[in-house]
Amino acid sequence: MAKVKPFKGVRPPREIVEQVVSRPYDVLNSQEAREEAEGNEKSLYHIIKPEIDFAPGFDEHDAQVYDKAVENFKKFQEKGWLVQDDEEKYYIYAQTMDGRTQYGFVVAAWVNDYIEGRIKKHELTRRDKEEDRMKHVRVNNANIEPVFFAFPDNEKLEEIIRTVTAKEPEYDFVAPDGFGHTLWTIDDQETITRITEEFAKIPHLYIADGHHRSAAAALVGAEKARLNPNHKGDEEYNYFMAVAFPSSHLKIIDYNRVVKDLNGLSSDEFLAKLAENFIVEEKGEEIYRPAALHNFSLYLDGKWYSLTAKEGTYDDKDPIGVLDVTVSSDLILRDILGITDLRSDKRIDFVGGIRGLGELKRRVDSGEMKMALALYPVTMDQLIAIADSGNIMPPKTTWFEPKLRSGLVIHKLD
Q1: Entry pTM
Q2: Cα distance between residue 334 and residue 311, in whole Å
Q3: In the predicted model, what is the mean pLDDT of residues 205-228?
Q4: Mean per-residue pLDDT, 273-277
Q5: What are the tens digits of pLDDT across the range 110-128?
Q6: Secondary structure in 3-state letters for the chain
Q7: Domain parsing of the chain, residue ranges
Q8: 293 touches 409 (CB < 8 A)
């Protein structure tokens, strides 16, 4: 059963929230963060991407960079740009994109639930990325950025969302990317108790986004427990910060592929090979979007094609075999194009669906890429089925949007 608790969040005063909060550390590079933070000493990038305070090109994994994060986190608190709440609270965080709003609970999740598999994952993590985030959590003694969880729908928690969000929010603003962010604080004890009790009835939480952050936060918590001779189990470091959304609120968007060459084949030969496992239909110059599961769109030589996987080329009874990312990885990328390792092959790149299919066309038309493949998005039900089966999704399968804004709430580990 999922164990969560309220916590004393560290957050910006309302009047400066928009200056402080930022995009997550892993969706932009150092140069982009430097540009976004330019002229703004209150930007959270000074804490989550502290290399921006050094000359361009400075090694972001240098010990001085982590030290700078600590120095900046301390400075933000001394200057009152980040202030800790006096009481333990839960928070409700809403994100609005394209007229759709999703509501999540900001909670402190139990480290043991992650270690013992009650917080389920669907992706492999890379040790180097884990290590980087572990250092960041360790030196700051805080989860500066939350993890993104999903949980099976629960009517009583929905009722709490409706009641709380009918009141005046603490923060309410639209970020530069056009997405709305709203936060409410929950401080009445009865509601806090109800939230804790309802989460305790939920068998599993699911990591939607932020596998490296989850691993890092849990590993640091476990490490602190091991190193504390007086460890009791109720210390704050036994918990890490997450925003947990009912799964029906979330929508996964497509994650598409662009490839540099056809592995020595001509376009006609490539299309002929595709026809062995797919029904190939030319769609012309108008952008064609996949219409359903097992239907793909291909962009090649200025034309769009519909590819429909033939019966028998996929396994709808297998949580991994049913995925279009599996079908395309096996039958197109591996068997025809010779791309076997999606994580490391330099011939392939990935484009989040938020950029639109026009971005695929642009990258092929520019000559940078030879072809593009658009996939029908994975559903939350598929993600949960994979996590429940103990399987791992192929790389670059899910893209969640909008991303959680960092800096709305921070969780200290002491």
Answers
A1: 0.90
A2: 19
A3: 94
A4: 98
A5: 999 999 999 999 888 888 8
A6: CCCEECECCEECCHHHHHHHCECCHHHCCHHHHHHHHCCCCCCCHHHHCHHHHCCCCCCCCCHHHHHHHHHHHHHHHHCCCCEECCCCEEEEEEEEECCEEEEEEEEEEEHHHHHCCCEECCCCCCHHHHHHHHHHHHHHCEECCCEEEEECCCHHHHHHHHHHHCCCCCEEEECCCCCEEEEEEECCHHHHHHHHHHHCCCCCEEEEECHHHHHHHHHHHHHHHHHCCCCCCCCHHHEEEEEEEEHHHCCEECEEEEECCCCCCCHHHHHHHHHHHEEEEEEECCCCCCCCCCEEEEEECCEEEEEEECCCCCCCCCCCCCCHHHHHHHHHHHCCCCCCCCCCCCCEEEEEHHHCHHHHHHHHHCCCCCEEEECCCCCHHHHHHHHHHCCCCCCCCCEECCCCCECCCEEECC
A7: 4-251+401-412, 255-376
A8: no
Q: Do the Cβ atoms of 277 and 355 come closer than 8 Å? A: no
Q: How far apart are CA 200 and CA 195, in angstroms?
A: 9
CA distance linking residue 210 with residue 256, whole number of Å: 20
State the CATH architecture for 255-376: 2-Layer Sandwich (3.30)
Model confidence over 336-391: pLDDT tens digits? Answer: 999 999 888 999 999 988 888 999 999 999 999 999 999 999 999 999 999 999 99
Residue whose entry in the numeric block shows the structure tokens 């072809």: 371
pLDDT confidence of residue 125: 83
